[in-house]
Description:
Blueprint lengths: L16 H13 L3 H14 L9 H7 L4 H24 L7 H33 L5 H9 L9 H15 L1 E3 L2 E3 L3 E3 L3 E3 L3 E15 L2 E14 L4 E5 L3 H14 L4 E4 L3 H7 L3 H21 L2
Parallel strand pairs: 5-8
Antiparallel strand pairs: 1-2, 2-3, 3-4, 5-6, 6-7
Helix pairs in contact: 1-2, 4-5
Amino acid sequence: MQPEKKEKKQFYLKWPWNLVVYILLVVLFRVFSIPLILLLMWWNKKQQPGGPAEGYCMQRARGQLIQLVWAAVALLMAAAGAAYLTLSWNADKTGWDSMEYIKLAAAGLLAVGGVLVAGYLAYTGLRDAFCPEKSRLAQSIRDQLPYPEEAPPVKELFAMVDEDLCRNGQWFGKLAVGSEWVLGDEAVMISHIRGAFWQDQIRTRRSGNRVSTTRILELWILDNRQQCHSTAFRLPKELQAAVECLRQRVPAAVFGEYDSREYNDCIHADEQQWYFMEQEYERRKAQLEQGSR
């Protein structure tokens, strides 16, 4: 008999030690810590080929800590607004025109708004990471169940989605499509999907002589409660592949571009219109099931 091969033990940083290491790197190396953090994140992912040890859902919830970065950006903007407001308030206002007072008011709004936005982003990021049972992802899973108020604990909620994705998951950027669940920024049960709408737009902004372009790649999934769940993509091919996968998973659903007639009909339907749309969905579903027999 051949001796059994021992499974090679994988080394990677577990939660919360990975977070501690990332924070220490930022404190020690500041902006130069970014490539080191990216390298460690790549290593952690490589050492877990079967998926993250804590599960896809828990990883997604803890990943909301990235909002602390945007909270810091909002605080910097608030500080800039407060600095301008303070300097202008103490300056000699002789000869000021209306534009100067408008700038003063705008600086005040920027200072207050920046603090409010930073507080909100910091709160939601920390809440989702350290209290996953209160996270937006956990709530989205509860909302898909027949009796959300009787939902199991968060570990069992996340396990339902994780098990499906481990067995049947296909990944398109940050969106995963299983046989029962779709996981993006929120989770949606596939049997509840009534529509999928994609957005691939290039927006142009002009500031003086400068022209900047931004490409928006998003997928909007509409569920049976007439609620939309959006997920952003980095590459057009990931968005296109995700749409094609959903066409195979939910062929009876409505598909179209964002802000198209189909999209607006579904999003803005009143209660009676939505009732007829649900009947039409069931009719298409029954026809497709009969045709596949």
